[in-house]
Amino acid sequence: MRQLEADYLIVGAGAVAMAFADTLLTDSDASLIMVDRRHRPGGHWNDAYPFVRLHSPSLFYGVNSRRLGSERLEQTGLNRGFCELASSPEICAYFEAVMREQFLPSGRVTYLPMSEYAGDGEVISRVAGSHTRVRARRVVDATYADTRLASTHPPGFSVAAGVRLLPPHELPAVAEPYEGWVIIGAGKTAMDAAVWLLENGAPPDRITWIRPRDAWMLPRENFQPTAEGFAPSIGGLAAELEAASNATSVPDLFERLEAAGLLKRIDPEVTPTMYRCAIVSSSELELMRRITRVVRLGHVEAIEPDRVVLEGGVLHSPPNVIYVNCTADGIPSRAPQPIFQRERILLQYVRRCLPTLSGAFVAHIEATRADEDEKNSLCAPIPAPHNPLDWLRMHLSEAANRLRWSEHPELQAWFAGSRLDPFTGLVERAMKQPTAEQAAILERYRKAARPAYQRLAELLEGADTPSSQRVARPLKG
User: Fold this and answer.
1) Which of 135, 146, 357, 441 lies at a CB distance of 3.0 to 4.6 Å from 5, suitable for a disulfide?
2) Are residues 71 and 182 both part of a single domain?
3) Are β-strands 115-119 and 215-219 bridged in parallel, bridged antiparallel, or unpaired?
4) Per-residue pLDDT reduced to its tens digit, 37-64
């Protein structure tokens, strides 16, 4: 049996694991062994549908040490005028280059692709079946929030023989016209499938969208980390706090957020019950609204040759249709755990909706702090969101983290210098010599922060939420 030894064994080579490894290599002299079940780094991007793109700019995705894409604004398409969004092939090539051109030449990284970690330091090759014994000071688990896709996870409903059910990544291979398309799912994958069909000529009246829930979405114009994007981005953050400060209830909060252009929904007549950090442009939203055949009868239980059985009824459909399965859970709902657990590091978010920044920051704390309690205090996990109340939870959790970070100038400087942080550097640069508009926005933010977080805590405490998920109030400082 082959034996290997390193300071860290990292289980997974997806985006968060790569961001963690990159910062650990930069901030320490540690040696790493990276084990991944796929044939190349990039995690779920290797399994993604070919037309998927990042929700948010390439400018703040990937690893800290290497830029993804360029700083150009897109000139055509539904993202016109905004920072470019990398495609899945671009992202896979990027992580491959990071591994081959940076990690491996460093001499401090051993990469074991097509391998499974069986626990207790044992790695098994998925190709040869051979076993490798690994000794490491700490095991870094990057699989706790592993993304689930329709191409890798089967549907949770029965499908009769002869029914054409496709995951989204097979859509571009369809080579003949069909009588119609039925999209199943309510998340960003379903939105992408709807946009792809419409952009490729599918008539809206031949698309049926089974949407058991509707989602609140974030507007892309508020996520532009450029000097020109300061007003919508940082002004948007200030407006969020102002909406929270004045909200009389949770429904009133979301009405205020929508009225201020801070949250979007496809159907203004339907109250969303889902929130997953999905980001869309106004052009994408307008396109999705062209689909009017929307079925809201709950989740699918079975697809038969001429009908779909749902929780709340039956949808009759002709036989010559394609069903597009977009029901995979994405990031599963899991209870947060301490990130630092002696010999184990369990990677989780510490900044809302920013996975690679979170992975990089956890690595920075691991490399620069020795005390386990201090590490966990500085890296309190933020659970992935699923419902609208999670919007409140994430804001409060991140505010508590930011308050702790503010006590350490070195951490503030790290965030300001990180290419994965879309806003801290933007604010730091503006504070040095702000324009009148920037100064006014910063003052609005400062003035609204304390009452906003106090009010969010009160609203969340009053909501019908399990006590284990409540956030303690008030925030001090």
Assistant:
1) 135
2) no
3) unpaired
4) 999 999 999 999 999 999 999 999 999 9
